[in-house]
């Protein structure tokens, strides 16, 4: 595995061509562009239904310049498992070359409806990399809440703000015994591209959870996408860490976090959470951020020895 320290360490060829129909400032496509520039060929991408598929494959056009399969909303990891098993069998017979199978899926297709397939693939131990771009709702179908939607965020199915916390998908996949699970953000391009290469190089089911700000569904101005990703990390709302063979490491230490309000107030989806009468919900949100950070620090300390 070669390290990425300069832009020239990435592959020159774009995997997702310009001209797709994503909204201006779409964080998911910024992340996917980086992922495809970093991934070591040969690989095959599997994408379930969601914004990424809809904006990149309107018949008769495609934006994909890499082998790519679109599958149903619920079965990306099952299809990826089948491709991986078939390639393994062909290689055994000397008939083909192993490709890494890389799933790139939204949060709805990962945390919710695709979860059964994901859990099965990780439990069976397939050699694949699963990347979730997390825009924290079902954006493609009109901004419905998902298990990744944070507490207090308004969606079309939670107009007064979601009452439940975000599901901790990383811990769940660590619990499946994955050799490598990590988080990243498109504003930290070296972190993201190096984690793609690292996760790809490890045999077995590996997982990356990437924050993907969405101007349309989070209600912020499109030029603020990268700032939004940065604020998510610097407020400790979206910590950047990795878990390698059970050992936790915080990759981006935030010693003096920015106030969470700096992040929340730029997004109209949190308008309800910021109302004075909802101060108790905001407190719950802040407590969740603090508890998770403390948990990560403890896990990093306990597992480092
Ligand atoms: C079984 C099934 N249920 C519902 C849908 C409708 N559907 C397609 S994409 C989608 C939401 C995708 O959300 P997410 O995975 O978060 O991706 P995003 O659009 O946010 O990028 C839904 C509800 C479907 N295609 N199939
Ligand atoms: S709705 Fe959000 S995730 Fe979907 S294309 Fe637009 S900005 Fe990207
Ligand atoms: Mg989504």
Task: Note down, in words, how this protein is organized.
Helix 1 (about 25-40) packs across helix 7 and helix 3 (about 75-90) packs parallel to helix 5 (about 115-125). An 8-stranded mixed sheet has the order 2-1-3-4-6-5-7-8, with helices on both faces. It has 11 helices and 8 strands. It is of the alpha/beta class and about 300 residues long. It has one domain (about 5-305): Thiamin diphosphate (ThDP)-binding fold, Pyr/PP domains (Rossmann fold). The mean pLDDT is about 95. The structure holds thiamine diphosphate, iron/sulfur cluster and magnesium ion (MG). Thiamine diphosphate (TPP) binds next to helix 2 and helix 4.
Low-confidence stretches: none
Share of β-strand residues: 5-15%
The helix content is 25-40%
Got a strand count?
Answer: 8
Secondary structure tally, helices = 11
Classify the secondary structure makeup into a structural class: alpha/beta
**Which sheet architecture does the biggest sheet show?**
8 strands, mixed
Shape: globular
From the 3D structure, determine the CATH topology.
Rossmann fold
CATH architecture: 3-Layer(aba) Sandwich
By CATH, the superfamily comes out as Thiamin diphosphate (ThDP)-binding fold, Pyr/PP domains
The small-molecule ligands in this entry are: thiamine diphosphate, iron/sulfur cluster, magnesium ion
* Major beta sheet, strand line-up: 2-1-3-4-6-5-7-8
* Head-to-tail CA distance between termini: 26 Å
Q: What Rg, in angstroms, do the CA atoms define?
A: 19 Å
CATH class group: Alpha Beta
What is the average of the pLDDT values?
96
């Amino acid at each position: 595995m070669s390290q990425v320290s300069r832009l020239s360490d990435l592959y020159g060829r774009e995997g997702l061509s310009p001209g797709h129909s994503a909204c201006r400032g779409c964080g998911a496509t910024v992340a996917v562009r980086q992922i495809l520039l970093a991934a070591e060929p040969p690989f095959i991408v599997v994408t379930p239904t969601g914004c990424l598929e809809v904006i990149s494959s309107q018949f008769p056009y495609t934006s994909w310049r890499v082998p790519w399969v679109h599958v149903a909303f619920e079965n990306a990891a099952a299809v990826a498992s089948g491709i991986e098993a078939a390639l393994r069998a062909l290689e055994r017979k000397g008939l083909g070359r192993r490709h890494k199978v890389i799933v790139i899926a939204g949060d709805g297709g990962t945390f919710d409806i695709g979860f059964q397939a994901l859990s099965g693939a990780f439990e069976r131990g397939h050699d694949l990399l699963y990347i979730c771009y997390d825009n924290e709702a079902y954006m493609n179908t009109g901004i419905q809440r998902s298990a990744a939607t944070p507490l207090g965020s308004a969606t079309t199915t939670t107009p007064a703000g979601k009452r439940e916390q975000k599901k901790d998908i990383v811990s769940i996949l660590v619990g499946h015994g994955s050799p490598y699970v990590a988080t990243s953000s498109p504003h930290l391009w070296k972190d993201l591209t190096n984690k793609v290469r690292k996760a790809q190089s490890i045999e077995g089911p590996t997982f990356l959870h990437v924050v993907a700000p969405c101007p349309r569904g989070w209600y912020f101005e499109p030029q603020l996408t990268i700032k939004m990703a940065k604020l998510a990390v610097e407020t400790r709302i979206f910590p950047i860490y990795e878990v390698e063979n059970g050992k936790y490491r915080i990759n981006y230490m935030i010693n003096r976090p920015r106030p969470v309000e700096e992040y929340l107030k730029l997004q109209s989806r949190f308008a309800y959470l910021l109302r004075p009468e909802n101060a108790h919900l905001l407190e719950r949100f802040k407590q969740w951020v603090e508890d998770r950070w403390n948990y990560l620090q403890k896990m990093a300390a306990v597992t480092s020895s």
